[in-house]
């Protein structure tokens, strides 16, 4: 399997994205903003197709538009928190715009499928460097705001009383989520971002309530699911995004079942 350059690139790309997605996703689940993260992936699809229509790089178009979307969502603050209707409207509008851009640029249809469902086996060296840069930026920014982020996530009223700007922190965090989402789209696609961004984090929170071990476990689960999914895709010739999704769902169901058994016996 490792005799092929494209498989080596796939494992490196999957590892980079999975680590960032696991860590970022843990805080996304902790703050109850998973639907907002899903909406950002659709915003990224519109950005990628729009950039292709203008002759620009789809990756950077996706990153820029997703980043703007994340900052805008963060600026709305509490008005967007828990508002499924508003987020769903943004999600549908972004996907519709992406389809409109494809209508005017039909030559991009094959790459659009990769954006929707992911194509980790098609990652080249230039994309690897881009993903590495995005990943380092996300992790560095998340480390910088981690303490106030945890404080605001667990005790928002007390944090605001202590002078922490909830809106500014939300804007910074959702900007980080936007960058992580742009990386995830390269691996599992727009429609399956939940697989790496939410699945491992939710599983980790079922298994431990401690913050440090929970973040580490989410990153390790995402990494294992990504690498095992790529390996299974190689040996079965089935899509890697399918296998990653199956592994992510199975891990969550197993953790949820174990939690139920513990509560029943207790």
TrEMBL record:
It comes from the Bacteria. GO terms for biological process: response to zinc ion; transmembrane transport. Gene3D superfamilies: ABC transporter involved in vitamin B12 uptake, BtuC. It is a multi-pass membrane protein. It comes from Chromobacterium sinusclupearum. Keywords: Membrane, Transmembrane, Transmembrane helix, Transport. Belongs to the ABC-3 integral membrane protein family. The chain crosses the membrane at residues 6-28, 85-108, 128-150, 171-194, 214-235, 242-261. It is found in: Cell membrane; Membrane. One of its GO terms (cellular component) is ATP-binding cassette (ABC) transporter complex. The keyword Transport applies. Its main location: membrane. This is ABC transporter permease.
